[in-house]
Amino acid sequence: MTYYDRPLLKAPVWEWMVPAYYYVGGLTGASLVLGAAAQLGDARARVALIRRCHWVGFVGCSLSGVLLIWDLGRPERFFHMLRVFRPTSPMNMGVWILTASGGAAAGALLRGGGPIGYFAGLCGAALATYTGVLVSNSAVPIWQQARHVLPILFGFSAMASSGSAFRLVAQSSEEHRISGLFGVAGQVAELAAAFAMERRVSVVPRVGRPLKHGRSGVMWQAAAVLTAASLLITLLPGKGRKKRIVAGVLGTLGSALMRFSIAALGTASARDARASFDQQRTSSLTTVN
Length: 289
Known about the structure:
Layout: H1 17-38, H2 47-72, H3 75-81, H4 90-111, H5 115-136, H6 141-145, H7 150-169, H8 173-201, H9 205-208, H10 214-235, H11 241-271, H12 275-288
Helix pairs in contact: 1-2, 1-5, 1-7, 1-11, 2-4, 4-5, 5-7, 7-8, 7-11, 8-10, 10-11
């Protein structure tokens, strides 16, 4: 039982900079992965795409650093995290991953790709997914219940983010083709991961409640609708510029809203006085059985 329905947990105090960081970091990381993938095969025919990916990676890492420092409040807090290397701390590892990604992206720009471009892709994959680990490594019921799915969801949403962004800026047909395939794969997998998350958290109905009720539920469902609409428009016949712009805008809005909905879901779940107790009771019964 709860104590007069008072929440067991304090709601997250993160402001808009944190979900914005999730989106920008995901887009940045996936773009570096796309740049590394584009180096495979005939890289000379994709020089413009590879360079664009590394530019997005460099600028995105810089902006991500600004958002993270803004949320921390003082720049020295960011640099103090680099004084230690603690693999058991997702936040500490995140600072190291962001720093390595920015350095690798800058190096790839100067060297025009090559081995450092592949290293940037590895750092980008970590940057795109570690925030899912960070979020799920908490006592917030809905995040904890989805801990095995959230890193996967964040990673595929990052692919969708990058694909949508490149639909808006890609110039050559080769860029459109590669980034389009990358984005479509990300959107399909993101929708599948979102469905898997819904099923997983709904095992405890009270924990899954924020997915379908209140502001968090509206944001979560709207994000899925926007992503699905972008995917549908992309798969329709035709290669017109207007079609690419509409699909890119819808996909960008869907990916960004998904990140903000994750933050809203956590706030709603932490404020639910009974969610933690129902989760613990279900876990105890499962362990006994």
